[in-house]
Input
Amino acid sequence: MAQLKKPTIKNPDLVAAMADFKQSQNPQTEEAMLSAIQEASFIAPISLRTSLDEVEPDENGQRQVQASLMAVTNKAGTKLFPAFTDWLEFLKWKNDPDAETMVITFDQYCDILLKQNIDIRGIVINPAENNIVMHKEKMAEIKGVTLPETSTATPNTNGNHTISPLLGTDKLTNPDVVAAAVRLRNEPSQEVQNQLFTALRKGRFVAPAIIRDFPKEVKPGEKANAKAEFIMINRDDKKFLPIFTSLSELQKWTAAPQCSALPMTFAQYTGMLSTPQNTAAGIVIDPFTIGLAFTKEQVMAIQPRLELQELKVIPMDMLQELKTHMETIPSIKKAYLAGIKANGTDGHLILLELDDPKTDIRELAEPIAQIAKKHGSCVVAPVESPLGKQATEGKAPFYEA
Output
């Protein structure tokens, strides 16, 4: 049987740019990779509608056959054209030296995907290993064109790729975090760092996740149980949990897989990092704009991992000093003492019951913490907090106004 000539192209610049992006995902490495993609020619698997043996050669001895590009479908059901940087990458995906292929440029992919109404969402480069996905919305953005209105592409806020915002993530913004993080990058100081840490503890963020085992039908009033696999990002040969301050920031991650956006508190990020099976080295805030990273140890200091425990020794002199101080604060009705372990360190938990539960406890906590810290680490919290309710159950206060 006659065969098409096998392609001999290679793309060393693109392969290197993809490796750099996989190692450290930031705006610079992404821009370099996208530029290399636009200059590349790819190997594409095709399906021949007629074989070469069935076609008579023309006056120049050439055979003209009809062929169509082959598409693949990922686990989420998304159809993509596979594109390979070289023949070895193709063989990793399909170990068939006799497979029919053709060479196609990025511009030719754009002509097919952007000008024709086909049910293909984009291309996936080297799907056997690197698995870099570029959806047609990003291709349209690069080419400066508008997708046809009849296109079957799924629209989204930023036009990059399909992200399903769940549980109100499309409404989340964190201006205080963004302002403090940008300021910290430009003028690092302890004061600005403390402002950022405070904003992080208060914020609710957007986390990319792949939802698995979600039931097809959920009756009203029923709880839906599903597994969420949170996606990490590569940075300097390490994996980090990305914290996105808004959905639009997540949508800047053009190489992200098709995923869902879930709301996450900073305490929940800390909880994930503290589990032994988690391999993340830390967190990175808005990796494609701010790119501010913190190690796991730094994160634990920002948001201590707290565990209640019984006090081995009750420091009576500390209690007496606290009572004397609290007598000068009319808004404090009662105060309780419990034992706590913060990031593995033993300490004291002081719980306050106030006249007005809406009072900002931080203004009262600082002088109390300064007194207690003479005797070890200290956490001050309101009685109404989940930790406070648990710690005060069945216990008498050490101070009562």
